[in-house]
Write a structure and sequence with these properties.
- The chain is of the alpha/beta class and 658 residues long.
- Among the domains are: 115 residues, Immunoglobulins (Immunoglobulin-like, Sandwich); 104 residues, Sandwich (Immunoglobulin-like).
- It is built from 13 helices and 31 strands.
- The chain is elongated.
Length: 658
């Protein structure tokens, strides 16, 4: 082994004995402050402190341009206490210096150059070197952070616009190049604000060597991808969105990581971060590695990563990817390709323990954020606290609602009443979890087609159905998520190599869908009845879910204030219904808030009076009723205004176009 050089200083470490003990226990959740590369001064020397976990290494050295990538030049020292951490201070290495760790395994002699798992910045492929960087940034979002508790609360309106940074918009005049984080800040904020969304959710921004993975094959967990700029540039984007009143959620992938040589795989010549047994440690569907959730240091790495983005980038929380793949040992595996747990079951008990600990740590440190589980099975109590037997997430994607509803709208059936229950079944379990209703990127890729092209019917009916679909989504209990392009009826599948089909907005049909979504968002935000009791049966009441013969359903949404109620009526038939009787719980005036068939949305213009008064005609179970026009394939929102005398303004258009 080569001798340690005099250019490495060993007594400048950030690690204390207490840190090492917590790390080995899996309880040091700010590891990014201790491991990785950190600009600092040791005595009179300015340089960078390096620390990396590689317990099965015989030697570790830091290499870079500063030593011509010579593995014998700057050897690190293994810390005491059996932590497996190697550290050292290298004078003269400053911000922007690319580097890797040269690792020699103990027993096999395996050698490899690895990126830094804790690096704040990375070089682009194919070099994939880590870069010494700082996280100094003058944040200007104090007002947002002060209001974070009410913006992210479970009784708040949460309407999420899901965005892939590289394909939302591009600079077409410059060969379709990416917008940078800073270039994107203003137009994205203006658009999201105008459209009425409350939050944006970015597909994984963490560094990933393969652009086509959309970020789901992460290599640099502590670094925003340099495709769009520096860490400070991404901070600017988050900061700007916050200053415009928009929350930021990050898609996060603790379920698996790629096998790229520069990354975590086989890090020190052993399966350090992943399970060694391929029946647990290799993902057959994604050909990637699965984190070893039973390893204390790995749990500390992942929880530190979650807290890092909350601490340093001020984000609102995470959509945690592929939770089901973490929970089940037999996920995507055939019989004989997995091993049961100690009790003979298929549950990954170590992953369950990790997820509970993750959520406890997040909510203890940042109680006003949210963790959202993409969990596609019936695993119980995903969004219930760990002390009640849950996994501790704040929210869970409602995949059942998404699949049933999409299937209904895409099914070319001559007898849709047979499938009426696909629309109503989700209410039976709507309050078993804190649900988000997702129409995400997953539904418009891999040959699935765009949302508009999934809709059944002729060209006109496709747009009517899409508006109806969105209308059903926004009144159904649960928070909302819509992938970019869906809000104006993008025609083609999403393609990460180009931007959205913005020119479609020259057509009135696409403009109409966009205006409808905008009005839905603003109504949803402004009416407590549509969001305040999303997770309580007290906020929902059926009027009628039995009318499958005419394909009509109706229900009431309620706020905590019992006087605040909204009636929603849907006609899922392409046939208009005239003088349709709806029983209501309150007499008096009901004002029509939205009608998806209005001409400005691209509809036919069959409308009710803007204000409608009840009649004393009883309806089964109701003492009062309304007589309404239900346009074909339409959604109607009406709000009770009590028993005040009905006065129609002179300018009110009272015509009923046939």
């Amino acid at each position: 082994m080569p001798k340690k050089t005099e250019t490495v200083v060993y007594d400048a470490g950030l690690l204390t004995d207490h840190d090492i003990r917590l790390f080995k226990e899996g309880n040091q959740f700010r590891l990014y402050e201790k491991l990785g590369s950190h600009l600092m001064t040791a005595g009179e020397l300015e340089g960078t402190y390096f620390a990396v976990w590689a317990p099965n290494a015989a030697s570790v050295s830091v290499i870079g341009d500063f030593n011509r990538w010579n593995p014998e030049s700057h050897l690190l020292n293994e810390t005491k206490g059996g932590s497996g951490i190697w550290e050292g201070f290298v004078p003269g290495v400053g911000k922007g210096a690319p580097y890797k760790y040269h690792i020699v395994a103990k027993s096999t002699g395996y050698t490899v150059n690895k990126g830094d798992p804790f690096a704040f910045f990375w070089e682009p492929p194919p070099r994939n070197a880590s870069v010494v960087w700082d996280l100094i940034y003058p944040w200007g979002d104090a007002e947002w952070m002060k209001n974070q508790p009410k913006k992210n609360a479970l009784d708040a309106p949460i309407a999420i616009y899901e965005v892939h940074l590289g394909s939302w918009r591009r600079v077409r005049q410059e060969n379709g190049r990416f917008l940078s984080y800073r270039e994107m800040a203003r137009p994205l904020a203006e658009y999201v604000k105008e459209m009425g969304f409350t939050h944006v959710e970015f597909l994984p921004v963490m560094e990933h060597p393969f652009y086509g993975s959309w970020g789901y094959q992460t290599i640099g967990y502590f670094a925003p991808t340099n495709r769009y700029g520096t860490p400070q540039d991404f901070m600017y984007l988050v900061d700007y969105l916050h200053q415009q009143g928009i929350g930021v959620i990050l898609d996060w992938v603790p379920s698996h990581f790629p096998s790229d040589e520069d990354g975590l795989s086989n890090f020190d010549g052993t399966h350090l971060y992943e399970y060694a047994d391929p029946r647990k440690g290799f993902h057959p569907e994604w050909t990637s590695c699965i984190f070893n959730y039973g390893q204390e240091e790995v749990r500390a790495f992942l929880i530190s990563n979650a807290l890092f983005w909350l601490d340093k980038y001020h984000v609102e929380g995470f959509r945690v990817d592929a939770v089901a793949s973490m929970l089940y040992l037999d996920y995507a595996r055939k019989e004989g390709e997995w091993t049961p747990n100690e009790y003979g079951g298929r549950e990954n008990l170590e992953a369950v323990c990790f997820l509970r600990r993750l959520n406890e740590a997040v909510y203890a440190s940042h109680p006003h954020t949210q963790t959202v589980a993409e969990e596609s099975t019936a695993w119980p109590k995903v969004s219930r606290p760990a002390n009640l037997g849950g996994l501790g997430f704040g929210l869970k994607w409602n995949m059942g609602w998404m699949h049933d509803t999409l299937d209904y709208f895409s099914r070319d059936s001559k007898d849709p009443k047979r499938h009426h229950k696909q629309l109503t079944f989700s209410i039976w379990y709507a309050f078993s979890e804190n649900f988000v209703l997702p129409l995400s990127h997953d539904e418009v890729v891999y040959g699935k087609g765009s949302l508009i092209n999934k809709m059944r019917g002729d060209e006109r009916q496709k747009f009517d159905n899409l508006r109806l679909f969105f209308g059903y989504m926004y009144a159904h209990p649960g928070k909302k998520l819509l992938f970019m392009g869906n809000e104006f009826g993008q025609r083609r599948e999403w393609n990460h190599d180009t931007d959205l089909e913005w020119p479609l907005l020259e057509h009135t049909s696409h403009q109409g869908v966009q205006t409808w979504v905008k009005d839905l968002n603003h109504l949803y935000r402004n009416e407590p009845a549509l969001h305040e009791l999303d997770f309580s049966a007290d906020g929902f009441e059926w009027i009628d879910f039995h009318d499958s013969e005419r394909n009509v359903i109706s229900f009431i949404r309620k706020a905590r204030c019992t006087d605040d109620i909204i009636l929603v009526v849907y006609n899922f038939s392409p046939v208009p219904r005239y003088d349709y009787e709806i029983g209501v719980p309150r007499q008096g005036i009901w004002r029509q808030m939205l009608n998806s068939d209005e001409k400005r949305y691209g509809g036919s213009g069959r409308v009710n009076l803007r204000v409608v008064e009840t009649t004393p005609v009883s309806w089964p179970g109701r003492p009062h009723s309304l007589s309404l026009i239900l346009p074909p394939l339409s959604a109607l929102f009406l709000k009770s205004e009590g028993t005040a005398k009905l006065e129609v303004p002179p300018e009110e258009d009272q015509s009923r176009e046939a």
